[in-house]
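USER:
Class, as today's exercise, take the chain set out below, and explain how the chain folds.
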Amino acid sequence: MMLHPLRYWILPALIGLGLGMFGAWSYRDQLVFLNGWSTSSTNVSPQDDRSSASTSEQPTILELKTLARKNLGLTVKVARLQDHWRVITIPGVVRDRPGVSDRGVTSPAVGAVSAIHVFPGDTVVPGDRLVTIQLFSEYLQATQTGLFQASSEIELIQSEIDRLSELAERGGTSKARMIQLQNDKKRQETLVRSSIQELLSRGLSPQQIDQTRQGQFVSSIEVVAPPSQSQSPDDAAPINYELQSLAVELGQTVQAGQLICSLADHSQLYIVGHAFKRESGWLEQAAQGERAIDVEFLDDDRREWPAREQTHYIRHLSNVIDPQSRTLDFFVPLRNESRSYEVDGESFRVWRFRPGQRTKIHVPIEKLTDVFVLPAEAVAYEGGQAFVYRQNGDLFNQISVHVRHKDRRHAVIASDGSITPGTYLAYNSGATLRRILKAQSASGQQPGVHVHADGTVHAAH
């Protein structure tokens, strides 16, 4: 019996149809996703699903082990309410204090420099020899001659007075003669006093003047370091000078009043701030109210010097505006620190602050009460939000806060309940903690935690 030709292809067709239906059933998820439909019973599109995920609450807890905190150098401190002054920052520079820091030494008479005892960089104290001057001043020589003659004349007159006094007791001399001798003696004593004062002003010592009265004229004088203007009578230790510059050479002829050298005493300096005229009102209020200001020394090496305990105040404001920079200067006294070292038996001094050193002066202008003051790097910012991080063991909870004021150094947080006093907060690496939180959230490595009613978090066990 012969089969109909149609039967040859019906059976393979049925087998192929069954295999196709089975494959479609096995890959139904992929086929539905390619058509833009979800396999869930709610029939939500992928775009709607991403929107709902973005509106869900972002993770606020990150986990940071001990080793990770050490690698970050993370600092955690207790947050406390305090008062804080809002400040304006004004550039400044360290300057010498006129009339105190620098001292010029001049030649007391006409002469030639015969010896130089100190050189630039050397440390000297008041009374140390600076240079020796060989005198050839006619005026100084005449003054010494007049002193010797007057002193000798006083001795002669006194001898005559003594001789006539014995005769006066016997009635052998007149009183007019005695009065004349007394007047002559007073005139010579006046010449002696004036000559002594003149020689003292020329740099002669009392011992040299006594030698001159005895006929031993001084042919050279020692120019010594003068007393310091910044040293008070109660100071036990002398103020040391540094020889800043030497204006003469060996053998050079100098005139009376000519500059020999310049001495520097940097123990008392000024910090000069350069403010704009619109800031003068705030500066006047700070000076009048004697508000303590904070000075930041940009080149100060704190590792080599002890902690500073000086409180700074504005002493006065300049009444002249610089025509080039259009700034108004104000002056803050600075008490300097120093240390000494020796090389080959010579002593040298190093000052902590030097004229020309740049500063930033933080002047308080507004007082903020009952706020949390954190370092600027403790706060992370994203968009219009600010975050700090509260520690509880290895967990850090991200808290959204209101920043009332911020500057380069501080962030002032409002006391609105987001932070409570006594909370342990990260005081640095705020931006880094924000990035770590986002990385842990993206990788799905969020710690399992539960939150207590007081807001603290603990790892779930």
In short: The chain has nine helices and 26 strands.
